[in-house]
Design brief:
There is one protein chain. Helices cover 39% and strands 12% of the residues. By secondary structure, it is of the alpha/beta class. The strands form six sheets. It has a nine-stranded mixed sheet with strand order 5-13-6-12-11-7-10-8-9. Helix 9 packs parallel to helix 10 and helix 40 packs antiparallel against helix 41. The protein is globular, with a radius of gyration of 42 Å. About 7% of the residues have low confidence. One of its GO terms (molecular function) is RNA binding. This is Helicase SKI2W. It holds the Pfam family Helicase_C. It is found in: Cytoplasm.
């Protein structure tokens, strides 16, 4: 490179120079003033090819201040102190306090051009939207990107959740009760309160109006830029052609913007157009009337022949032909639609996920794949990494390739990213939810709902699930909250059909006793069931013989179990039906069964060699001592014989070795718990159920159909087996046929909402003003029954009806008309409640016996007397047959209702008395038709009355006179009615029927008081009372329906609202939020913590962790992640014991506060969540004790210990982050040291799937 000699600097030269930053291709602008005799700075820091390097800041500070004798002299300390003051004390610059950031421009200039020639005509001021948006004040995707792009920040706003409507202008304009109108022009104060003089704001001399200014005139001097002549010519031509007027010239840009946005005046439509519009409007109204269906079931019965025409170049190709349901799903993905795919295990749901990932790579967007469990995330990472390459993994303790286009993570991490406004959401095209039926999980199901609600509008959703009965209902909910269609693709077809057998063998002689119970087509064979019962009966003693499972115990001895397993596995290996997965619902039973097969060897010598080399290679990354753990030595011996165990107590690395060996066919028999059925496709030839009963945390129960189908679905390898075999062991006896039928052919469990409020959710939403917790509750699956759209349409109609009703006259005598109506309504409700109580009581039903005189009120009769002839025996739909008085000619059921008083709607006890000739009818009455039971009874002959009445209903006997029995009964009823026309004495619920319940007694007293009140109203004496009362009734009926609907669409009807208010009280009492709901410092700290947020935040603010050593802090916090009960008693230091007591004291205080605020959980239940069984184990582990030694300190299995320590590391990270928010750097560093002390050896060995 040639050296260029530059002339010396002159007075006009600016002190600027460019500095080439190494080989990065970047330049830096230097602006230090340079003296005249100093040459220009060099153009390059270093020779090309090496990056620039600066001195280490820490070294420079140490050299300059700590090691310099001039700074730290031994004797002359005064001068050193003066130097320090000079450094520490700065000049005060008061002006700097007034400095503020320049507000972003809210408008810009836009060029107005001629549309044909492109000639510049004018400039218009355009208002800029989304200016000044940042992650601290906006939910918009238009805001400036953040520096913390992956996980987001606790101070960031989330992005706007899809389907959550932003406030409309009308809603913003609506004033609350506290707001009032302010006139900003008239009546304003000119003198401030407390001052004598003020300001005069009146316009003293009106300014002369400014002349019009045209922007073009200002630019007219630039002739070389714009020539005005062509513009004028174009304008002339435009006018001659009859074009619309040009843009108006104004004296301000604002005016131009406003006038430009005004739409042109609409011309009157022609008659034909008007009719067309009317028809369209009608059609639109009809469509609006129908409720929109968001879930769209897709037909997969007919073949998809035009698939390759519609997608000639698919984003991903498979080496096999896709099934119809897979093709339909791919077509929906190509159209960027959301899908819910429900299919059996091994049906090929992963194809849909793979296509979405390929599509996002083609579109250069991103996909997130979520799974319910971490182990499944690791397995999917390996599979997708092999297929797509550009795949990342995010779990609590691992972060691999976070910039990848496809990210695999647990659902909890995605929730945290959504709340913290992660920048990943911007580029997101798909979110894939695997194993969606996990939403039924009581503990973690709420996470799925939160994520689905919080996802942004531009993100499409793919839901993969086992077959569920309510897939359409669930999709309807998602579609409604996201305002988009969800295509439901459901298939019950199995690629490999299953055959289900009962196995009763327990020795070499009986090892072939296998009975087909459910064939591959789905027929339940009772013949096979009875054969199994007979086979089992032959070997049971006379005393134990019974039918089915009745009377047989569910427990068997270890030797009996061993005999059954040995005979079964010999039988299966002879028939080459391995590999076998044996589902056993107890971890200890899994281990015992595997150990009992010491005599069995299912591997060939070549397989033994493969297992040995793979085992050694996989465990080579462990330390020497860890390789000699008892569990590892035992498993190595089992694996060499083709046997393995898989449950949560097994070390994670060992579980991965077993899974990999199983998928390679080297494990012949795998004893596993239910978790093995979740997730990754590891099919076997045969599945065996050790039992059909399991403990679900509360008690023992039979397997649910969904659980059985999920596990049985592991049988049958696609492409290898014609059918899969499922075997149920009948060890102690044959299971009950009804139980088996329900379990095998019953419907799987429906997807149910497990939505609940957590403090983290409440605080995360409260810190963002634009999002409300009630919005989240309203959109939860638990509130899916609310049909708000229909209600809102009906509300509009009712409001219109209300406004069209005539006004009420409440002047003069009618002044108390409304109170009269309300009293009457309350009396009616009280009467109905009492009537219901009487008719539901034993004494009330006894009183309704044959011959009892009752008062009947229904659509046909009003206060008519009747006598009971028959009482039905049906306890559910109880009914009465009665003879009732009526007017002549109104005996039929369809007749108009007869009136006892001019106002039948009023409360009146006046009995019905026929005006003309008296007649009768015999009718069947419901209990609610009986409004009162009188104290009178009549002697009647029911059969004769009913027979005579039925006979006279026939056309030929219609004119016959009524029989003697009917005539007598009718005359008696008429006599009773005439004797007491104002109302007969009725049976008193309290005194006569002996109903002493509080509600009944209060109801009777209330009824008397209301009846007395009714006599005091003056409105009943007004001549127009009848007409006005009908108006009130009409108006109030509409108003009551309106109030009911308004309540249903309001937040007050949310089922979780009371609990939300209780939790807010707790947060206010603890100081997490203030009275206005603003999140305080404690609340912001709690947002960082994912579980047990209240306890952990309180411990942080009470400095419970400060006096502890790092290893003691880790040991104490283990109570937050350990959930099992343990029999061993930990030996711990006094400091740690004191800290445990403080934790329990804080937990007790929080529990009592929650109880006081109304939350159902007791203080004892809250405290019992925290278990300190692993305190000693974690303490010793953090101090460096080998794993083989800490395993001896507890009865908890090794796998559980490892999992707890891994989760503890996540808690320590959260506490470290929280300590930094508070500003406690000492505690933050302590948590970091604690985290480092536990992150070692076998506990944190990298997963085999990720390396």
């Amino acid at each position: 490179m040639e050296k260029i000699d530059l002339p010396p600097l002159g007075p006009d030269d600016l002190p600027l120079s460019l500095l080439d930053m190494g080989c990065s291709g970047r330049f830096e602008l230097l602006s230090q003033p340079i003296t005249s005799n100093q040459p220009l700075l060099p153009q390059s820091t270093l020779p090309h090819g090496l990056p620039p390097i600066g001195p280490d800041l820490q070294t420079e500070v140490e050299t300059r201040f700590l090691r310099d004798p001039g700074w730290l002299p031994i004797h002359n300390t005064d001068s050193a102190f003066q130097k320090f003051l000079k450094l520490a004390q700065r000049d005060r610059q008061v002006d700097s306090l007034l400095h503020c950031i320049v507000a972003p421009l809210h408008s810009g200039l836009s060029v107005v051009r001629d549309p044909t020639t492109g000639l510049l005509l004018d400039f218009a001021e355009v208002m800029l939207e989304d200016t000044g948006l940042s992650l601290k004040n906006s939910l918009s995707l238009q805001r400036a990107p953040a520096s913390e792009s992956l996980r987001g920040s606790h101070t960031s706003y989330p992005f706007q959740p899809g389907g959550m409507e932003e406030l409309t202008l009308d809603q913003i304009k609506k004033r609350t009760e506290a707001e009032e109108d302010i006139d900003f022009e008239n009546g304003l104060l000119t003198v401030a309160p407390g001052l004598k003089a003020g300001m005069d704001f009146s316009d003293k001399d009106a300014k002369a109006p400014m002349a019009e200014v045209n922007l073009m005139s200002l630019l007219s001097t630039f002739d070389d830029i714009i020539d005005a002549r062509p513009e004028r010519e174009e304008a002339d031509v435009g006018e001659s052609r009859g074009e619309g007027p040009k843009l108006p010239r104004t004296n301000s840009l604002d005016d131009l913007g406003i006038k430009d946005s005004v739409p042109p005046p609409a011309t009157a439509p022609s008659p034909s157009e008007a009719t067309g519009d009317g028809e369209k409007r009608k059609e639109g109204e009809e469509k609006e009337g129908e409720r929109k269906r968001w879930a769209v079931p897709v037909d997969i019965t007919s073949p998809c022949d035009d698939f390759y025409k519609r997608i000639p170049e698919p984003a991903f190709k498979w080496p096999f032909e896709l099934d119809v349901f897979q093709k339909q799903a791919v077509l929906r993905l190509e159209a960027h639609e959301s899908v819910f795919v429900a299919a059996h295990t091994s049906a090929g749901k992963t194809v849909v996920a793979e296509y979405a990932i390929a599509l996002s790579q083609k579109h250069m967007t991103r996909t997130i794949y979520t799974s319910p469990i971490k182990a499944l995330s690791n397995q999917k990472f390996r599979d997708f990494k092999a297929t797509f390459g550009d795949v990342g993994l995010l779990t609590g303790d691992v972060q691999l390739n976070p910039e990848a286009s496809c990210l695999i993570m647990t659902t909890e991490i995605l929730r945290s990213m959504l709340y913290n406004g992660s920048e990943v959401i911007r580029d997101l095209e798909w979110v894939i939810f695997d194993e969606v039926h996990y939403i039924n999980d009581a503990e973690r199901g709420v996470v799925w709902e939160e994520v689905l609600i919080m996802l942004s509008d531009h993100v499409s959703i793919i839901l993969l699930s086992a077959t569920v009965p309510n897939a359409v209902e669930f999709s309807e909910w998602i579609g409604r909250i996201k305002k988009r269609s969800i295509y439901v693709i459901s298939t019950v077809k199995r690629p490999v059909p299953l055959e289900h057998f009962l196995y009763t063998g327990n020795s070499t002689k009986t090892q072939k006793e296998q009975f087909l119970l459910l064939d591959s087509v789905g027929n339940f064979l009772t013949k096979g069931y009875y054969a199994a019962v007979d086979a089992k009966k032959e070997r049971t003693s006379k005393h134990a013989q019974s039918f089915g499972a009745k009377g047989s115990s569910h427990s068997t001895t270890a030797s009996q179990d061993r005999a059954v397993w040995l005979s079964l596995l010999h039988f299966l290996s002879e028939r080459q039906q391995t590999p076998v997965v044996a589902f056993t619902f107890s971890r200890s039973r899994c281990d015992d069964n595997a150990r009992s097969l010491a005599s069995m060897d299912l591997s060939s010598s070549q397989e033994k060699s493969e297992v040995h080399s793979f085992f050694q290679k996989s465990l080579s990354r462990l330390r020497g001592g860890d390789r000699q753990l008892p569990q590892i030595l035992l498993m190595r011996d089992l694996l060499k014989r083709g046997i393995a165990v898989h449950h949560s107590g097994i070390l994670p690395i060992l579980k991965e070795v077993i899974e990999m060996l199983f998928s390679r066919g080297l494990v012949k028999v795998l004893f596993a718990t239910e978790t093995f059925a979740m997730g990754v496709n590891m099919p076997a030839r045969t599945v065996v159920f050790d039992s059909i009963r399991k403990h679900d945390g509360t008690g023992f129960r039979n397997l649910l159909p969904g659980e059985y189908i999920q596990m049985a679905g592991r049988a049958g390898r696609r492409g290898l087996d014609a059918t899969g075999t499922v075997i149920l062991l009948c060890k102690s006896g044959v299971h009950d046929m009804g139980d088996l039928h329900v379990m095998m052919l019953g419907k799987p469990t429906v997807l149910q909402s497990q939505f609940r409020l957590t403090y983290t959710m409440i605080l995360n939403l409260l810190r963002v003003e634009a999002l409300k917790v009630t919005d989240m509750m309203r959109r939860s699956f638990s509130e899916n029954h609310r049909d708000t759209q229909t209600h809102e349409k009906r509300i509009v109609q009712l409001k219109q009806t209300l406004s069209s009703l005539p006004p009420l006259d409440t002047e003069g005598q009618l002044g108390d008309l409304l109170p009269y109506y309300h009293t009457l309504t309350e009396l009616r409700i009280t009467n109905q409640a009492l009537q219901r109580a009487v008719l539901e009581s034993v004494s009330g039903l006894k009183a309704l016996s044959v011959g009892r005189v009752v008062v009947v009120n229904n659509t046909q009769h009003c206060n008519a007397l009747g006598v009971i002839l028959q009482v039905s025996c049906d306890s559910v739909n109880r009914s009465l047959t009665a003879l009732i008085l009526c007017e002549k000619g109104r005996e039929d059921l369809g007749a108009e209702p007869q009136k006892a008083s001019p106002l039948p709607h009023l409360y009146s006890t006046a009995l019905f008395i026929p005006e003309g000739p008296c007649s009768h009818t015999v009718q069947k009455l419901r209990l609610q038709d009986v409004s009162a039971i009188t104290s009178k009874t009549l002697k009647v002959i029911p059969d004769r009355i009913i027979d005579n009445y039925n006979k006279r209903q026939q056309p030929r006997f219609r004119l016959d006179p009524p029989g003697q029995a009917i005539s007598t009964a009718t005359q008696e009823l008429l006599r009773l009615a005439e004797a007491s026309p104002a109302g007969m004495a009725t049976l008193d619920p309290v005194n006569d029927l002996q109903l002493k319940g509080v509600e009944v007694v209060e109801g009777v007293l209330r009824r008397r008081a209301l009846q007395d009140n009714l006599r005091e109203f003056s409105c009943v004496h007004c001549p127009t009372f009848s007409e006005q009362f009908l108006r009130v009734q009409e108006r109030m009926t509409v108003q009551e329906e309106l109030d009911k609907l308004l309540f249903l669409v309001s937040d007050q009807s949310l089922s979780l609202l009371p609990e939300y208010q209780q939790r807010i009280k707790v947060l206010q009492a603890l100081g997490y939020v203030d009275r206005s709901g603003a999140v305080q410092l404690k609340g912001r700290v709690a947002c960082q913590i994912s579980s047990h947020e209240l306890l952990l935040t309180e411990l942080l603010f009470e400095n419970t962790l400060s006096p502890l050593a790092p290893e003691e802090s880790a040991a104490l916090l283990s109570c937050l992640v350990f959930t099992q009960n343990t029999q061993t008693c930990p030996h711990i230091t006094n400091t740690l014991q004191e800290s445990i007591d403080r934790v329990l004291c804080v937990a007790q205080r929080i529990g009592e506060l929650q109880r006081d605020c109304g939350i159902a959980q007791t203080a004892e239940e809250f405290v019992a969540q925290f278990k300190f069984g692993l305190t000693e184990v974690v303490y010793c582990w953090a101090r460096g004790m080998p794993f083989s030694e800490i395993a001896q300190l507890t009865d908890v299995q090794e796998g559980t210990v490892v999992r707890c320590i891994q989760r503890l590391d996540e808690v320590l990270k959260e506490v470290r982050q929280a300590a930094r928010i508070v500003g406690d750097s000492v505690l933050g560093n302590k948590m970091e040291r604690a985290s480092l002390s536990i992150r070692r050896d076998i506990v944190f060995t990298a997963s085999l799937y990720t390396h």
